[in-house]
């Protein structure tokens, strides 16, 4: 799994080295490397082709649309999820929701049908015995069987016991088996509780990295109609909650990390420019060295307007 912190720090190191190497990547209207070396920089007018539209705070639309990696690719804006869900199941997702609910009902009835099948099979064995004793109560049937010496004479003789001794022995054996089954079930329950508590503790710690993470919501998100759940399968295989979550959302996390890195690099470059008392070119930070771009019509000088007219007569297309 990629270490998001190391990934970001790595890019910052490379960016810092580039910034420390000189002013080659910070062409502005006031100063440029070409000017300090004596060469006359080329002036470009208008917006650079393919540039992203700027927001009111100078950030690009792409950076404004970014999602911080810390919340697992989920917007932190407050939302009424219940209202959204109701709208979805009554609108475009109405048929899909009905199909999902029907599948859940089918699974439930299938389990009930399986249980009924087992009961019917047992009845086919026990009913003849009840008819033989002339009774219609299963508890009475058990008593009759345990007190019917004729059913145990051969087995008691083979074990060297009297019938009464054999019946007592078999009764004790059943009690031991019941106690063992109960203890095994209790141990399974304790183990399940311990495992779930551990998952809850891991989930709570994970919120420090992904504040929007919710263990139950994550389980529900990956529940399939056939009853399978890949997230639970990963946890059941011994994988910790953090690794399982990141494995299920690797694409979203990588995209969100790339956005965060881009924002961090832009901020670091801007801070570097400000620290050196320079002003970045209006249309971004990626202008070629030795080029001054003037894209704000209100800041054009008379010489600039003459030059623009001259270039327009030559067929150059300039857009503001």
Give a structural overview.
This protein is mainly alpha-helical and 320 residues long. It has 2 domains: 4-73 and 260-313, no CATH class; 81-251, no CATH class. Helix content is 61%, strand content 2%. The chain has helices spanning 4-20, 33-36, 61-64, 81-90, 94-133, 138-147, 153-158, 163-206, 215-221, 230-236, 241-248, 250-275, 302-313, and strands at residues 42-45, 291-294. It is elongated, with a radius of gyration of 38 Å. Mean pLDDT is 74; it is low at 1-37, 52-76 and 284-288.
What order do the helices and strands come in, and which of them pair?
Elements: H1 4-20, H2 33-36, E1 42-45, H3 61-64, H4 81-90, H5 94-133, H6 138-147, H7 153-158, H8 163-206, H9 215-221, H10 230-236, H11 241-248, H12 250-275, E2 291-294, H13 302-313
Parallel strand pairs: 1-2
Helix pairs in contact: 1-12, 10-11
**Chain oligomer state:** single chain
Counted by DSSP, the helix tally is: 13
| C-alpha-based Rg, rounded | 38 Å
Unreliable stretches, pLDDT < 50, 5 or more residues?
1-37, 52-76, 284-288
Number of strands: 2
**pLDDT averaged over residues:** 74
Q: Per the principal axes of the C-alpha atoms, what is the gross shape?
A: elongated
Helix content: 55-70%
SSE order, one letter for each helix or strand: HHEHHHHHHHHHHEH
**Structural class from helices and strands?**
mainly alpha
């Amino acid at each position: 799994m990629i270490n998001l912190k190391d990934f970001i720090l790595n890019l910052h190191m490379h960016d810092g080295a580039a910034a420390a190497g000189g002013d080659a990547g910070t062409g502005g209207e006031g100063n440029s490397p070409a000017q300090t070396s004596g060469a006359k920089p080329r002036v470009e007018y208008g917006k650079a082709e393919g540039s992203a539209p700027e927001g009111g705070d100078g950030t690009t639309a792409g950076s404004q649309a970014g999602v911080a990696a810390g919340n697992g690719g989920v917007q932190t804006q407050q939302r009424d999820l219940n209202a959204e869900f109701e709208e979805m199941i009554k609108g475009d997702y109405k048929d899909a929701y009905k199909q999902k609910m029907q599948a859940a009902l089918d699974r439930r009835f299938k389990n009930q049908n399986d249980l009924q099948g087992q009961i019917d099979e047992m009845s086919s064995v026990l009913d003849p015995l009840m008819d033989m004793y002339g009774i219609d109560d299963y508890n009475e049937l058990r008593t009759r069987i345990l007190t019917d010496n004729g059913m145990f004479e051969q087995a008691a003789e083979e074990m060297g016991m009297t019938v009464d001794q054999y019946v007592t022995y078999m009764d004790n054996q059943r009690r031991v088996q019941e106690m063992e089954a109960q203890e095994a079930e209790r141990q399974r329950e304790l183990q399940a509780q311990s495992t779930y508590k551990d998952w809850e503790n891991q989930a709570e710690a994970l919120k420090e990295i992904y504040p929007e993470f919710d263990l139950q919501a994550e389980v529900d998100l990956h529940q399939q109609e056939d009853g399978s759940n890949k997230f639970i399968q990963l946890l059941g295989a011994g994988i910790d909650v953090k690794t399982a979550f990141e494995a299920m959302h690797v694409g979203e996390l990588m995209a969100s990390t790339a956005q965060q890195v881009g924002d961090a690099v832009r901020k670091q470059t801007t801070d570097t420019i400000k620290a050196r008392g320079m002003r970045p070119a209006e249309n971004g930070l990626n202008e070629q060295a030795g080029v001054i771009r003037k894209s704000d019509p209100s800041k054009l000088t008379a010489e600039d307007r003459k030059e623009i007219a001259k270039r327009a007569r030559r067929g150059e297309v300039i857009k503001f």
